[in-house]
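Take a minute with the sequence and C-alpha cells given here and flag any C-alpha cell that looks odd. Thanks in advance.
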Amino acid sequence: EVKLVESGGTLVQPGGSLTLSCAASGFIVSNSAMSWVRQAPGKGLEWVASIYVDSSAYKYTNSVRGRFTIATDRARNTMSLQMNNLKTEDTAVYYCAKGWGDYGVTEYEHRGQGTQVTVSA
C-alpha cells in the first residue's frame, strides 16, 4: 500500500526558513517522480515543485524558484522541501504527491494528508 505522510509545517515569520518532509512507504521515492503541491485558503491546488527519478531533473513554479529546494533521500525513503525567504503568500497546506507535476496539474497518483505552513508576523 502506498502511503505518504508530510511533516514539518508550522507558523514562521516572513523571511524565515522551514523544511518540510514527506515519509513514503509502499514504493521507492528515489525511483519515482515526486512533487510538492499546495493549497492556499480559498484557492485551488497549486503545483510547487517536482523532482524526477534519481534526482535527474527538477523544476519549480516561478514564485518559489530560487527560494525552495526539492530533494529526495534514498536511504530514508523521504522527500523534502527546503523553503527559504518565506513570504505571506506561501501560506498554504502543503502536500507531497507521487507523480510529475506542472502548472495546472491537480491530479496525482497518490497524495498525502498535508501539513500546514503559515507565514505571518
In short: The two ends are 40 Å apart (CA to CA). The chain is about 0% helix and 45% strand. The CA atoms of residues 49 and 120 lie 22 Å apart.
